[in-house]
Amino acid sequence: MLEGITFESLLDIGMAELTDNTLILFSNSDLLYKFSEVFDKFAKCVNFKKDTDDDINYNTTTHGEELTIKEIVCYKAAHIYDINKGQQKIIMTVEPTIALSMKDKWDLWFININSENKLSCWALTDIKGYESHGLNDYSAFDIYAGLVSGKFCCYEGYTGK
Q1: Quick check: 111 and 121 in contact, CB under 8 A?
Q2: Is residue 153 scored above 80 in pLDDT?
Q3: Per-residue pLDDT tens for 85-102?
Q4: Residue 32 phi, psi dihedral angles, 5° rounding
Q5: Where are the alpha helices (DSSP H) in the chain?
Q6: Domain limits of the chain?
Q7: How far is CA 13 from CA 8, 48, 79, 81, 134, in A?
Q8: Mean pLDDT, residues 66-82
Q9: CB contact at 8 A, 88 and 118
Q10: Residues 79, 75: Cα–Cα separation, whole Å
Q11: How much is the pLDDT for 148?
Q12: pLDDT over threshold 70, residue 53
């Protein structure tokens, strides 16, 4: 299983402690496209057993574990990847309803542009009050409601694009 990944070409975007149900919410489709291009490049290297570029670093849950990554959905608003034949899925989207498929607060990640016009990445568990595992304190619906109200600073709202 893919446990962590860093993309230096995307201004050191790094994600650690990925779950088997990793959900990444992007603030807009341009960021999703930019990120998915780099992720696709990574997937091709992994699938063809080539060394990844110097700007991509990753680790697996078991040292030396081989990964297979298959893109199963690709359209403007979402990309869905299957890793190791169902062992893990990674869903990248601009649609906040993705929060409703959370199994754990550790599943959800955000990617946005910060005030310095640079890519910024954080996990839901990086936000005070959301650090624990499970959905006992907040349901997936509570988190979805927070997303659409702007609580987590990532959802820009529907633009009709």
Answers
A1: yes
A2: no
A3: 999 999 999 999 999 999
A4: -60, -45
A5: 29-47, 140-148
A6: 2-148
A7: 6, 24, 18, 19, 25
A8: 93
A9: no
A10: 6
A11: 86
A12: no
Torsion of CA 45, 73, 84, 96, to 10 degrees: 110
Q: What whole-number distance in Å separates Cα of residue 13 and Cα of residue 5?
A: 8
pLDDT for residue 52:
67
Residue 160: is its pLDDT beyond 90?
no
- Residue 161's SS3 state is coil
Reference 113, options 151, 156, 54, 84; nearest CA is 156
Output the pLDDT for position 33. 92
**Alpha-carbon torsion angle 55, 69, 119, 106, nearest 10:** -120
| Residue 25 β-bridge partners | 93, 110
Task: Dig out the tokens for 81 from the structure.
Answer: 């990847």
